[in-house]
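Lest this sound abstract, we let one protein speak, letters for residues, whole numbers for local backbone shapes, and leave readers to judge:
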Amino acid sequence: MCAGPGDTSPEGTASDCTSLAHADSIDADSIYTSPSQKNESASTLIPKHQKSPMALYMDSLGLINIAELDNSIAISLMYTKADNFTGEILYDDLSEAYLHPHAAYALLKAQEALKALHPSYSLIIYDAARPMSVQRKMWDVVKGTSKYRYISNPNRGGGLHNYGLAVDISIQDSLGRPLPMGTKVDHLGVEAHITEEGELIRNGKITETERQNRILLRKVMKAAGFRALPSEWWHFNFCSREEARKKYNVIP
């Protein structure tokens, strides 16, 4: 979702960070080679004339459309609908999930790790790269409410979504049904915290099955180099905010 104050986590280690401006120098094949990439063809790539202006803008910045890397990863951006914690549609013309190349190829590793454990499962993305213009819109919606604590302030540099270095994600089964995780994505409350899952089970807030599903998600994302956000089971960062600000460019 957001990553306001304290968007750090003890889980995982930071990946090597380089500037978005140097994305063209990345050797994708040396980072990751997956059988799923064999699915890439003219039919899986979206022709430019069919893309929205926002998608073309993301392309122009060197960000990567996840569907064009691996179409087995499901996409359902939550801010394309009003059914999110803000109650408003924030993405008017973006339905594709984009990430910085480093985070994008790391995500393919996570999908590969998940498929190795559960071939019928797939990752499903609910939010990825988020332009700062959208971050400001989100901030304006929650400013003055209790929800502001869950949003990175755009006036202070925003969060890792604004660099294409964070993803809100879960797991779905072979029928496209999200695995139960105890709360909806974007839930604002202690039930979404990963640091108190034992107590949440004892209090009947989540089940052991839901905790095991969360653990599975953390396992495959950590294996790919992502860090979990303690307050949101669905949110994963590719590197720290400090590293991002030093070595990457924000998405205007």
Q: What stands out?
A: The beta strands are 64-65, 74-75, 98-99, 122-127, 166-172, 227-229, 232-237. The longest helix spans residues 101-117. The first strand starts at residue 64 and ends at 65. The chain has one domain: 60-247.
